[in-house]
Amino acid sequence: MAEASTKTPFWRMERVSKHYGGVIALDGVDFQCERGEIHAVLGENGAGKSTLIKIMAGVVQPTSGQMFLEGQPVTFPTPVAATDHGIVCIFQELSLMPDLSVADNICITSPPGRWGFIDHKAQKRRAEELLARVGCADVHPGELVKNLPLSRRQMVEIAKALGREPKLLILDEATSALTSADVEEVYKILARLREQNLSILYISHRMHEIEQLADNCSVFRNGRHVETFDKGTRTDDEIVQLMIGREYSQVYPPKPKHAVAPQPRLEVKNLSWEDSLHDVSLTVGKGEIVGIGGLDGQGQRELLLALFGVLRGTSGSIAIDGQPASIGSPGTAKSAKYRIALIPEDRKSEGLMLPMSVRDNISMASISSLTKGLVVDRAAEDQKIDEMVRKLSIKVGDLNDAVATLSGGNQQKVVIAKWLMTDANTILLNDPTRGIDVGTKQEIYQLLRDLADAGAAILYYTTDYDELIGCCDRVYILYDGRIIRELDGDDITEHNIVASSLNLPLEQREERAGQ
Amino acid sequence: MGMLRAVDKSVIIAWGFVVLLLATASIVLQTGSFFSSQYLLQQLQIATFLGIVASGAMVVILLGHIDLSIPWIVTVGGMMSTAAAGWWDPALAVPFGLLAGLAFGVLNGVGVAFLRIPSMIFTLGVNTVAQGLMVLHTGGFAPQDHATDLMHFLAVGRTVGNIPNAVFVWVLVGLLIVFMLRYTPLGRYIYAIGNKEGATYLSGVDTRLVIIGCFAISGVCSALAGIMLAGHTTKAYQAMGDPFLLPAIAAVVLGGTNILGGRGTYAGTIAGVILITILQSILAVMQMPEAGRQVIFGVVIVVMLLVYGRGQRVQG
Amino acid sequence: MKDTRLWLAQNYGPLLAFIVFALMFYTFIARHPVGLTVPVATTAANKAVLLALIGMAQTVPVLTGGLDLSVGFMVVMTNTVASVIVVGSPLQTALGVIGVLAVGMTAGFINGAIVVYGRLQPIITTLATGAVYFGIALFIRPIPGGTVNYDFADFMTFTVFETIPTTLVLLLIVVVFIWIPFRRSTLGRGCYAAGSAEGAAYLSGVNIDRSKLAAYTMSGLLCAIAGLVLTFITGSGEASGPQGATFTLASIAAVVIGGTSLYGGTGTAIGSIFGAFILRTIDDLLFVFDLPPLWQPLFQGVVLLTAVSLGAFAVIRIRNRLDLFQ
Prior knowledge:
The structure holds three protein chains of three kinds.
Chain A: H1 2-6, E1 11-20, E2 23-33, E3 37-43, H2 49-56, E4 64-69, E5 72-74, H3 79-84, E6 87-90, H4 102-106, E7 113-114, E8 117-118, H5 120-133, H6 150-163, E9 168-172, H7 180-195, E10 199-203, H8 207-213, E11 216-221, E12 224-230, H9 236-244, E13 264-273, E14 277-285, E15 289-293, H10 300-307, E16 315-320, E17 323-325, H11 330-334, E18 340-343, H12 347-351, H13 358-362, E19 371-372, E20 375-376, H14 378-391, H15 408-420, E21 426-430, H16 438-453, E22 457-461, H17 465-471, E23 474-479, E24 482-488, H18 494-501, H19 507-514
Parallel strand pairs in A: 3-10, 3-11, 6-9, 9-10, 15-22, 15-23, 18-21, 21-22
Antiparallel strand pairs in A: 1-2, 1-4, 4-5, 7-8, 11-12, 13-14, 13-16, 16-17, 19-20, 23-24
Chain B: H1 2-29, H2 37-62, H3 70-87, H4 93-113, H5 119-141, H6 149-156, E1 158-160, E2 163-164, H7 165-183, H8 185-195, H9 197-202, H10 207-233, H11 245-254, H12 266-285, H13 290-308
Antiparallel strand pairs in B: 1-2
Chain C: H1 2-10, H2 12-31, H3 38-63, H4 71-85, H5 90-116, H6 122-140, H7 150-157, E1 159-160, E2 164-165, H8 166-184, H9 186-196, H10 198-203, H11 208-234, H12 241-257, H13 269-288, H14 296-309, H15 312-317
């Protein structure tokens, strides 16, 4: 320990705070990291991780506190200033420009050339070299970024970061959009960079990634730095407890035992769409929570959109309560005939009108049924909204406040409230707990179970295996646009889900099939 | 609440500016006549044309779109109403003029909502088509261009005391727009589309119909202004709508409506219309040459927007 | 091979505009009573180059995700300025030309400064500054008039080597010495970056402010060149409001027909040149096909509307309706 205190740390922050108006995002944080190590940063959403990164990358400025690079005090008024000091961040939201070519993007900060003119040949060479370094030699540097699939874009993002010759590389959920082969490639790159004496800050929610990669971990909670420890000195349970600051138990409400198979509400047969869905057949019964699993981007999003009438040119058949249904638009889907709701993937762009009031957002989907003649019945509207706010315990000061002022969890509750107001009894959810604090997650699990118990049919896509296990009565795993497995009851285990997601055979299942 | 306050602030500033303008002009020209009811009523009457046009323009701007076909739809309104009086019956003049405006508005809406062509360019094309039709109409058919008695009555007649009928027409239009924006689902949808059309669609709203409806409203408002203008000047003539496009957009924006859609109140639009009308009137009274009027007009818009309309700095 | 394919795919819009223009121009010449003679080509080129320059001027702000509604009035203003100062001895004339260019750049720079530092929306900013520039034009030329160095104007509006219209050469010079260097500079790429994803560009350390300032200044410079061409063609200055408005509207049409997205980030000024040529050739075609003059404005409108509606074919192919709203 004495050794550590005499050595000057590579990067050090002292009592750094960040206030947004009255909200304290970061509260007197001391934090340091060294060269040649991969340092994982853990914490719930809202714990202050992203503020920490933004300060380090020069995107926002700290309200107070000091930062030192190799012992020298530094300030980063702009992202460029941070980059100039060798601090490079790969952001969760891609920082690529879709209309520009891959080479343009990779070399955007400091293109080769002179007098303000770009040497395009040198730029192309540089891009090719960097792409090869991240194992993406197949990406043509002249291709526009918007024509690349998401996983390739993420790799371009990483190549771009490497091109800026970082001394400290920050990865914010950088692997969430990658295929497993890419993830392996990224691990290799990171290991190599560590050998080259880089300092790497790695933010991820995937515990196994952290176990595999990190040398040490720092946990943040409520804007404070809780603890830094070496890998292997804490168990998963202990880490989770550090993150949430309370006992980690009984997260999911108990699943009821269905004595008889529930009556089907939603029946889908041979649903196909473009290259994304192939002959998908599934059933969701009344009172059932049915999960959809699989790796990201296997057609789950498209499946939900197809059921909600968003996609054109689908084939196959959908039946609601045994009656064939033809759903051509979300308007039809939510009508009294079908009563379907969709909690979309991205609440900020698909679920909410952020500058509009909480009230307007909650009643947006049901306002046409709350009218007398031409006029909105404000009394009825207010009454139903109040009911929803209480039922979901949405924390809101004034219903006329812009929904943008709410926390992520409360925003998601507003989206759910909007759809509960329509009296939907078939509820489709697309990853509703992403970016939400644990407390709100638990409330949502309980709410879904309550809705199911009241007779709703729930189709629940989540990227979190844990939720599939804890929440769902049955689970369909999608792979390449097909349902490759249905898991039921006790078969819903992490091992089975992961194996199915990778299209690997299941041990028990094969035994049974062999009978 | 923050949003509401921002809007209210711009309404107050706009009204404040109106008073400031009148006071400054009174002091400079050493006259109290700018605050006389006669002068103000006269300005109000002149403002009605712009006010009606701006009502439609505002509805479209709230969607996050823009209607550049206003000039020639105004002309269509004037010309089709007078022509209908000549072809069939004076009683059909006003309805036919409005109908023609509605048709062009719907055409705009279909292009924007179904063909998904940026409104900036599609309405420009519709404007050119309307212009072409009107040129052909006047040159080819020598139609009647005289306003009917009803049009004259609506534009310059006075029934209640000293107040011009035109003011009541504007009040009626304004009440309908406020009613729509504040009390009907359509109003909510308009603001919602201006904020995020995708999210509105996913809320089960047929956004295409809303867009068509808004462009139709804009078309009808423009045509109505054209009908009134023809009544005011006693005849319809080519390019009669040209002076309205830029002041209408400026009035809406000065009234605090976000040019990118989703935010704005009708009270602000009224303030913007009055502000622009008074500004133009005072410059005319001061015998400012056209050159100076244009410069001051432009500078006032920029300065006022710099006072309260500044956007957020881009960050991440 | 892959390079060529990518180039074709990425320049599909301008290429299409070029092909459409070529077909239209061929039809025009085939129908023309005298065919392609030097005077016919020169007359066609002079008007087309004027519009092409204004289209280019509009392209640059559009690429940044903005718009410049003042282009027409900047052209009108520089036209009136030129009718005062581009006169006299060759040296005076040269100084006059430089003066006009400086006026245009200043006007453009003011637009850019208000957009960048005032953080106002480009549409409304340039709407207002357009009125100011028109007012200045009116101040300079309350009634049409003025002159221009006639020898120079003659040279500029006729031909070089008695074959190639001088204005075409001028356009080529503008493309090679102004547009292409700009496109290949960090400033130019900053414009594309800002128009494509402003937040991402900021995070990537692109100097967005400088790029936008450059874009609007460039727009003013190109307008000044167009203003000079207009002065050479008409030989005088006129502060015409309708003409200013027509120029602005035509510039937007030229940009769209030339394959540039009004949402920014993608397109090129070369496309706008052909977009402008197409707009001009429509008029010429109406002339050679003896369409009654009364029908011409309607026909122009229908062609414009049809041309921009062609983009709707892409909409029909969209299978995920959410993509319609982006």
